[in-house]
Write a structure and sequence with these properties.
The protein is mainly α. Helices cover 75% and strands 0% of the residues.
């Protein structure tokens, strides 16, 4: 057993060292020459939260039926920002690291994974802020919160899977960047980031079922149910069965298999094509 662990450490030692260095470099460069520096990690979602809170809570009153809708809104923004940061940040990462790839031989997956881990650090800080707001608002934490790590793992795997697919496709098809940018703008309104999901299901249960099988929408609603209020609609309440969770879970699994397989098949040719 010890020999097996040592073999694994020896095999991935270089990748781990490189991964740590890339994450540190990305984090430093992101806030270089910034007065507030790392504080922007917390300020960006808070500024967006403030704007959306004024528009959708104080003016339009879209969350009047949802307890602690302000925290409900903030949690959705934090989850969405992580997903957007990972996927959008990974689209052109292989091309951006083209010079390094032509000079140094290293596992290509490291550069994509580094983007995801850097965003994961931001997510951790942002969730701490959400936790502070939860404490102040005295939100209703469900006993199902024990499954929160599963939800976060689902988010991590889905975002990372799409990152591998997008980054490898972008090497050959540069239109992918524009397509994904437009797609994310539309997805922001399709995923219940800034409104109560009941606004959809009250008008069309079928539309609600279509939207909630999106893994991001499903895990966002589940996280809100666990941390904010049990009045949150989830994939269980929309479909009426816990087995419905298998649909978004299946989408994540299929996406992961396709993405990792395609990335692995294209990785040997990245240095030639970037």
């Amino acid at each position: 057993m010890k020999q097996h662990i040592q073999t694994l450490r020896s095999r991935y030692r270089y990748s781990i060292i490189l991964l740590k260095q890339l994450v540190k470099t990305d984090f430093k460069l992101r806030y270089q020459n910034s007065v507030l520096g790392y504080l922007w990690t917390l300020l960006r979602p808070l500024f967006l939260f403030a704007i959306l809170y004024v528009v959708f809570v104080l003016v339009l009153k879209t969350g009047a039926k949802i307890p602690h809708f302000g925290v409900y809104l903030l949690l959705g923004i934090v989850i969405w920002n992580y997903f957007m940061e990972v996927t959008s940040g990974s689209v052109g990462i292989i091309v951006a690291k083209g010079d390094i790839m032509r000079k140094v031989s290293f596992p290509r997956y490291v550069v994509v994974l580094a983007v995801s881990l850097s965003a994961l650090i931001n997510l951790t800080f942002n969730l701490i802020v959400v936790g502070i707001f939860m404490f102040i608002a005295k939100t209703q934490i469900s006993s199902s919160v024990v499954f929160l790590p599963v939800i976060l793992l689902e988010l991590f795997v889905f975002a990372l899977s799409l990152s591998f697919l997008l980054s490898s496709l972008y090497v050959k098809f540069r239109d992918v960047g524009f397509i994904w940018e437009v797609g994310m703008q539309g997805a922001f309104f399709a995923v219940p980031v800034m409104y109560a999901f009941s606004l959809v299901t009250d008008r069309s249960l079928l539309m609600g079922k279509i939207l909630i099988i999106n893994p991001v929408a499903q895990l966002m609603q589940d996280a809100r149910y666990m941390l904010i209020t049990t009045k949150t609609e989830t994939i269980y309440t929309v479909f009426g069965t816990a087995w419905a969770w298998a649909i978004p879970a299946g989408i994540v699994l299929i996406t992961a298999i396709i993405s990792f397989s395609y990335f692995r098949s294209r990785a040997p040719f990245f240095a030639e094509n970037v």
